[in-house]
Amino acid sequence: RGFFLLRNGGGAARVVTVSPGPLTRVEGQPVSIRCDVRDYGGPSEQDFEWEVSREAGGATVKMISTFDSAFSDASFSKRIASGDISVQRLEDNVAELKIGEVKARDAGVYICRTPSTDSIISGNYEAQVQLRVIPNTLKVYPETLPSSVPEGSELTLSCNVSRELTYPTYLSVSWLMKKGATSEEILTFGPQGDVTTGSKYSSRYLDGGVRLVNGRNGVFSLVISRVTVSDQGTYECNGTEWTHESGGKWTRIVASVKEMGTVTVTPTKPNFTLTLEASVKPQKTGEPIELSCDVTNISKLPPGGRLGVSWEHTNKGANTPPPKLIGSLDGYGNLLSDSTYKNRLDSGALGLSRVPPDTFKLRFLRTQVRKYNSIIVCPTLNIVAKPIRKASVGGATFEMNCTVYPQNLGDWIGYAVYIKSQEGLESSVKTIMSLSPDNVVQHSNPNRRDSLVLSKTGATEFQFRLAGVQLSDRGYYWCDVTAFTKQHPEQSWTTAANSESNKIEIDFQENGPSFSIAIHSDATSVYPWETAKMECSISVSGSSTRTGAYEVRWFFTRFRGDQVMSEVASVGRNGVMKKTSRNSSSDVSIERKNSNTYHDSGEYQCMVTPWYNSASSGLWTQAGELTSGKVFLSVRIAVAESLKLPLLYGAAASLGVGIFSLLLGLICAQCCCRNTAHTPRSRNKLLDLEMD
């Protein structure tokens, strides 16, 4: 059976187009050439044939076809079998020729043809594009970076990017910061001479904190001013070669990434000079007094750093007690006070203020004999994580508690808590869930919402719970806490400090079974009316198989070696089967032969996800996904068999019509024809006529 859609109307003519050229690519890099057809007649799904000519107007060599496996020339057979040359259907009327690693001998004119399915030959049935292949001469030489730089200093990233100009191409250079397994873009220059920055570096580039310095002979330098602790990490230089194709399209043809080195930023303690003096001196007890604390000669203050002040006093005497806090102003101007002086601050009898640029004042309406000290402070956090319940087996519950110890923060404090994890100390960091200062919980993975809990158990205590621990949950977990402050409840939160806790490890060994998978087919080619059976076998070792359950999915692709596959059917570990709708006349069924085997008709690859019941915890644990090999099934066309039924039906119909005609004739003859006797003419009448 087939479904045909006549798309070629009255005066429409077939149009075949390919990627605009000429195309310039680098030897050893992948190449994709798109071919599409429109305004055609016949079935919606069209076929494509690719040929190549080494020089314009020369002889063509057959390369690959979407429907004829014997179409290709023998010179391409090995590359097609290895997948280096393939054709992928993107839509019914669009296909793409792919070359995995283009070679110098692949240069030439590529011709895409579409066999005619039109009732009237009209339009063009082929299109061609020229492919140039140039050698890979791109060179990237980064300069070695210092292993350590002090905070607030300047860091220069120099990189030499060059290539041999065999054909007009363009260069770009990018600098990236690598933390864990991910790399983040800092700045890119080129290929049109423009500059683009990463999202986290846009404001620093506009402020001049990140700037580009063009050198000579292909040397490009990126200067980062006023480095902070967040700038430490591994830096990379990425050189890219581009071509400007017809239509104004920029195409990257080759790239090279080189690691420049790892830089550690050493924190520096700010330096300054304090001067304390009485700007208003009382003449006697009870008169107002005003003290000024001037901060001068400030250096090594990190970018974005703020100054805060704390005022203390101590009594004179032989046994001097430790200084007692009066009040303080944090870096954001929030007023903090000890309970002893809170009423005096609220009534206005005691006041703390700041006079720009860096002068802090303390004023008493009534003075007493005191000695005052001034201390510069910064808000800090100390986070301690402790395990409550350790997960020693799969399926167990893991719990940890994070306690926040704040310093130099106000009364109105809110905390945003992020639970983070990483598989290894050098792996990428991912956020599991978070709790905002307003106690709003967010999950990064909604599928595990029921097994994750993050709650606030005290003013500065937070508890995280992970139920049903799997093998994929092994790694390190910790709390990332950001403190927010505000002067009164109506104000919005202001970021004050951030810190991370120590890391708690989930590490257990699950001695579960090991699985292997194999696929078998009872036939490699069938006729259209036959049924093909494919068997997906799962072997289990190391544990009893009676506790196993499997999720099985079957996939299908139209072309041999195509990486894009579509799912046709699946069966869950609970035995529920699902079919995927597809454009095919064949039907698909799945049955479980025994505890470790499934059957499928009409497909050639399966993927299985095993589940087993943990012997230690008695809970279901998911094992790694298994992928079988591929089985190719071809459908043969039998001419004799295909004509047998039409001839049989035609002969039977002719015989039936003949018998019906004979019967109809007999019935008409019996009903319409009468048997009447002949009456002779009277002779008397003839005699009468003669006498007359």
From TrEMBL:
Topology with respect to the bilayer: Single-pass membrane protein
Main location: membrane
Chain ranges of the Ig-like domain: 13-122, 142-255, 513-627
Any single Gene Ontology cellular-component annotation: membrane
TM stretches of this protein: 647-673
Record key words, sorted: Disulfide bond, Immunoglobulin domain, Membrane, Repeat, Signal, Transmembrane, Transmembrane helix
A Pfam family recorded for this sequence: V-set
Subcellular location per the Swiss-Prot or TrEMBL entry: Membrane
Name of the featured protein: Prostaglandin F2 receptor inhibitor
